User: Fold Aspartate carbamoyltransferase from Anabaena sphaerica FACHB-251.
Amino acid sequence: MPTTTWNRHHILSLADFTTAEYNAVLQTAASFQEVLSRRTKKVPTLQGQVVANLFFEPSTRTRSSFEIAAKRLSADTLNFAAATSSMTKGETILDTAKTYLAMGTDIMVIRHKEAGVPQAIAQEMDRLGVKVSVLNAGDGQHEHPSQGLLDLFTICSLIDPAQPRIELLEGKKIAIVGDILHSRVARSNIWSLTASGAEVHLAAPPTLLPKFFAEYLGATDSENLKSKRLFTHWQLEPALENADFVMTLRLQKERMTAHLLPSLREYHQLFGITRNKLKLCKPNVKVLHPGPVNRGVEISSDLMDDPEFSLIQDQVTSGVAVRMALLYFIGSGRA
Amino acid sequence: MPTTTWNRHHILSLADFTTAEYNAVLQTAASFQEVLSRRTKKVPTLQGQVVANLFFEPSTRTRSSFEIAAKRLSADTLNFAAATSSMTKGETILDTAKTYLAMGTDIMVIRHKEAGVPQAIAQEMDRLGVKVSVLNAGDGQHEHPSQGLLDLFTICSLIDPAQPRIELLEGKKIAIVGDILHSRVARSNIWSLTASGAEVHLAAPPTLLPKFFAEYLGATDSENLKSKRLFTHWQLEPALENADFVMTLRLQKERMTAHLLPSLREYHQLFGITRNKLKLCKPNVKVLHPGPVNRGVEISSDLMDDPEFSLIQDQVTSGVAVRMALLYFIGSGRA
Amino acid sequence: MPTTTWNRHHILSLADFTTAEYNAVLQTAASFQEVLSRRTKKVPTLQGQVVANLFFEPSTRTRSSFEIAAKRLSADTLNFAAATSSMTKGETILDTAKTYLAMGTDIMVIRHKEAGVPQAIAQEMDRLGVKVSVLNAGDGQHEHPSQGLLDLFTICSLIDPAQPRIELLEGKKIAIVGDILHSRVARSNIWSLTASGAEVHLAAPPTLLPKFFAEYLGATDSENLKSKRLFTHWQLEPALENADFVMTLRLQKERMTAHLLPSLREYHQLFGITRNKLKLCKPNVKVLHPGPVNRGVEISSDLMDDPEFSLIQDQVTSGVAVRMALLYFIGSGRA
Assistant:
């Protein structure tokens, strides 16, 4: 493991991540990636510690990824799913979190459909003076930092597997395509990618693109944003032109009922990524998607499965290594 | 670990618990509490044993507490939740239990909305001549012994953390306030607290207080009850006067639909515990609640969060230590 | 452990199982059965490996059995239940499987209500050139190989506990009674039992018996079937006459709504197994049922609980040992 000093106690947002922090995560994830290629994929780092997955919003993919990551660090895991919980008995979210604290939880991984819930729980833990760390696993339309970091790791370790570092993205052109407005994944990626020195191009129908970026990104945070490297487009083509990487976003079908979109077919025609449209990009362009994918909507089915272009499976694999790194940093600070 | 001889194979009720048993639990829980304060919170006591949580009634809090306790004893845990089970396929409860027995379960932790289910399963296990232990994690309105024991441990270890023992409660005045009639928590606490030599004062609206105590506590058990130390009140004030501890109970909102209560607001006015009402008690009075709490109903929100008075978080922490002790006693008897 | 060479990478069907494979499973299960009788029931065989239970169709019994088996081999387990999954978000089953692959799953245990899903996933894994093994835990009305193998183990280890082997069934008469047509359990058992050299007698009402056996068993597979040892009956009696073992099948109550059956009462009268009807069989006949049982429908309640006749609990216990053997074979091939 690298000997980087890590001072962040909770991981809630990428808005104020430093270059040193990004690189610490990338470097540590790379060494865990190596652990995962061994036959025995476990390390004793978090033995005896309890990682509670408090998922107030259902998720199989992200919860399983955190669960595998925690188990490979030898932690004990607890799963809380809101559906079967005492939440239905009217307890507040903070009380639920404090109950898990009192039971001896060391790290809380929290997903909630409302923005700000992990932050509120982290504040309460700090106010109580306890050592519990909170990791935001997706809060409403706000942020999904571990997804942003795993996307970053996927890209950087493609460029230099041995020494993935954020500087590798300097000057690269990255397109993010789809429902930017409602996407916590897009928001976390905008922070990490602009911090890397990449040029970030957002493409979406006008109804799915934020009008006021300062507001979208949070007034207090927007200073950190290297806004000169952020561009928005109402068409796909200018975003794709000469792009090195294309990130497509999942289209929530609920957006249609809200009349923000004409039809899935038209959306696919205009913003769906296909092999043909990729011809506008650099020749060795790669495509990412946070999953789960609506095949034939945001990306064509054949492209998704094409190992020449698609990094989608690598993202999932990177997710375990990156989450191990995050749990390692916030978990071993508690000595 | 203490070297007390433990003869009880199942833990179903506190009605016939002896002073020696109470003290064995308190003393062992205290040593596990110490284990939980270490960085590595695991002991190998139940390695290779299987603890099955058979929760026919949903519960996150109690199930998680038992799950952490089992994992910290290095047991393997299985969770069964009725919602997704073959129960919907018409299998009987006893057959479900026997299936878990046949799979090699060593300890069954059982919750059911009907009183007597854990007892029935324990009897069946004994009839079959197998070594499986049954732990009642709440059966209908009957008992919740691990809750009674963790409340006892919370109080006793507040008085003497190094040597918590039931004799410490001799002569203390303890008020139990709320829906006594329908509460399995109250029933288990009445057994342990009256056995301790404390004076127990029950306060509730007439509709939520049992009329016939022998019947309420079970005809065969009532001899054990030190009834001269049990008092009932239709008002809150006489119960609170000079009390050392106040236990509030969760108010099931279903009671309202059954016309047993006028309104939540009126209930809070009459029986809700507030800082102001606590002035009737001893100056260093402490408040307990089994959780989850309806803030502003059975207890005011500020009082619940006040570390000067509230033991609610300590109860949750005690729960893990006490459940480790119970699993230890019934689990290690099986050599 | 036996030193048998095992070449099968996935376990999807018993149609093409060889005698050597049956015996390797029986012998290995016998040694794990011995492990399970020890106080510490764990072996380190699959330490650091991940077994994912992907249950697209809910099941408590089979999922718990695989989970215990995996934990006793020291594997880490992940549970996926379709109800709370991203499946509801429109992802395909193959994409879900590939996500678990990318997270580092070593063995996928798959149940689905459609026949062929585990096969399709196994094919996809092979196409991708990855080492992941797929174990069919029940696919529609097709097969349930681990159930067939545990039934075989239950019977063979009754005859010779020290050396269970398929040859022990040569010349035995085995009746399978009930809803053959829709039963994946029956289909798997027909393959193993006819391969053993036993005489297999199927008894069911005409509406629940397949008309065309080649089609029922799969055209390509039917050559392997020793059809001369397979007999069908529309009445129970000829199947029971001199039988050594009687396997009853669970009656899905949905069959009634589909007008395939007159009434539960009439079904029980005609095809329900009772002590009285067993008088037609060999004196030491034994009864099996895959569970969960509808007491008083396919088997009388008293017979089910009679240790003289019933092997139902032994089947559940055998299930853990047999599944440990299967996970051992497909898991340790991945060196």
